[in-house]
């Protein structure tokens, strides 16, 4: 099924303390990091058992070079001041003014989704397949089947106590099977599965003829496909470590969080003589750091030069993208019986003196925010005292608890623009928050936060992020969110990818497409 459809998601306007409803349309539901070196060779011998791709899988080298040049251009642009969101798009975001559509439907349950540059998306399925799709055209471009196992049952030797514990911690009783994590950067894709380790594939391009017009004319276009590159063999010898999270940074490091508690970083840009990622043959990661607790999620922020992750037992950790050094840790839940499930870094306010924070979502639906201490000279997170409340001039900038909480585990966080936060949870809700410190209200009720005096819930002006509205109708399988100035993209709707577009011009285009596909039907 390649057609796109209008989507009917209930949008609940919360306004923190009030609620009213409107509807969108639908037609379908350590201080020092260790750099490891082998005493003989840091790589595996090419003559060892190592499967090479067949000739039929080789793509168009010229297209690949073009894609890599495009990625270099994007990286150069990232050195410039970040683009700010337009007033129109910001207003659309804050007022839930968007067109919601099913942009992709597969013959498989979608479990994970990642986007580097829209509209190209990669998906990991419940069957262990990896898909490449064009969300603009609503088209599946290619599929690699059985990259990962769909599940591991009790008869399998890999069905260990650690495996059972990992799945229960990540998904509780809502395990949909298949791919655990997926990430994309340029033409490089990394995925992890239940069998352990990480698989690498690339996007290849090949020129193909297609018929155009009724007079038999032809034209040429580049056909994109997926090519298997292999697995990181350095992880295979580590008892097939379960990798729970993956993230590329702009310097070419592929960061991965393991359930063994180890944060690893591999150089994904270096290629071998066969023009394949050299990290496939590396015996050890370039960076390695033991957090002594299972890592559940990681994300990176290139502008601040740091990443953030969560562990089951020790809460949130900040790490440097320059050398992998652990900068600080923070456990927002303490002895609450809840653990840190996912975290991200958000820019609360732009401008010359911009403010940044870490936002952490918990396993029972709670969300906390803690302000970062930015070095005014470098514009990066301060190496000493990374959090504002621990700095010399912190002035009591204590962590904040967001209200209302989700009802189940928060599994995805994203920030489309300064002052905006998106949270997704297993309760079937995706919420949009105003997280600007410049907004504030006097609606604070001290009885809400009885017993939570260690957090900044006391005072006259409440500057906590304010929930603007919630999009309902997702399933418990929600696991991935991508957001930029104009779009919110997510899984969590069975076999489909949902796109909420906050671009007014695109809204018109979607409506025209729907009228053609639905025989002139319009939706209210």
SSE blueprint:
Elements: E1 5-6, E2 10-13, E3 20-23, H1 61-77, H2 87-94, E4 99-105, E5 110-115, E6 120-125, E7 130-134, E8 139-144, H3 161-171, E9 181-185, E10 188-192, E11 198-212, E12 217-231, H4 233-236, E13 243-248, E14 253-258, E15 262-267, E16 287-290, E17 295-301, E18 306-311, E19 315-320, E20 326-330, E21 340-349, E22 355-362, E23 367-371, E24 400-401, E25 410-414, E26 420-425, E27 430-434, E28 466-471, E29 481-483, E30 487-493, E31 496-501, H5 504-517
Antiparallel strand pairs: 1-4, 2-3, 2-28, 4-31, 5-6, 6-7, 7-8, 9-10, 10-11, 11-12, 13-14, 14-15, 15-16, 17-18, 18-19, 19-20, 21-22, 22-23, 23-24, 25-26, 26-27, 27-28, 29-30, 30-31
Characterise this structure.
A 6-stranded antiparallel β-sheet has the order 3-2-28-27-26-25, with no helix packed on it. It has a 5-stranded antiparallel β-sheet with strand order 1-4-31-30-29, with helices on one face. Strands 5-6-7-8 form a 4-stranded antiparallel β-sheet, with no helix packed on it. The longest helix is centred in the first third of the chain and has 17 residues, at 61-77. The chain is mainly beta and 524 residues long. It contains 5 helices and 31 strands. Residues 15-40, 45-63, 73-82, 446-458 and 514-524 have low confidence and may be disordered.
